[in-house]
Amino acid sequence: MDTSHLAEHAGAAGSFFASIFVVATLSMRTMIPLRVFAILTNIILIATAIPTHNYATLILHAVLLPVNTYRLHQMLQLVRNVKRSVNSDLSMEWLKPFTTERKCTAGEVLFYKDEKADSMFYIVSGRFRLVESGIELPVGALVGEFGMLSPSNTRTQTLECVETGMVLSVTYDQVEQLYVQNPAFGFYFLRLASARLFQNISTLEQQLAQHATPQVAEPKPA
User: Fold this and answer.
1) What is the pLDDT of residues 6-61, one digit of tens each?
2) Is Transmembrane helix given among the entry's keywords (predicted)?
3) Does the global pTM surpass 0.70?
4) How large is the angle between the packed helices 183-211 and 172-181, nearest 10 degrees?
5) How many Å apart are CA 134 and CA 65, to the nearest integer?
């Protein structure tokens, strides 16, 4: 049996099926099926590159295979965490892998009211305060998401560090990419922002109630 002919046919068949997968990826709008087809393409091209001794293709897809596998695992983990979070509390723990760490000192202003907004923050430690409303944000709070939702993309309040701590920042571009790759994230993000809005309204109402002084009726003359 001529192994060279078998290798040639295997290479042709592999290239054909790989081409089908590549064309199929062009019609996909979300990242998870795109990664799945990319992994299948990598496996097919690796399998056909071995008998044809196409080492350049073999090395390329041997490198791409673990990258695509890792990215797929990341997205599947995100989907699971989002679904779990939607049915539980509004935790942002699952967003940490996509964030950048930033240390803040007391008196430092992270952003000012009306300035252009491009990121939001997750509070890991320390104390932070929204200056205009006087609301102090606890550890685990998310702040800065309203700037993404506002038509002008500007900050609605000033955020100041009251006690040295650390925050995790994530850019709006990254949030948009997460939404495109996983539409379920968009629902969760809107739910989170809505909850924060109602929390702020409730806090402001409580503060107004505390500062309101009841009017004392003047005694009528006898």
Assistant:
1) 555 555 666 666 667 666 666 666 678 888 888 888 888 888 888 878 888 889 88
2) yes
3) no
4) 130
5) 51
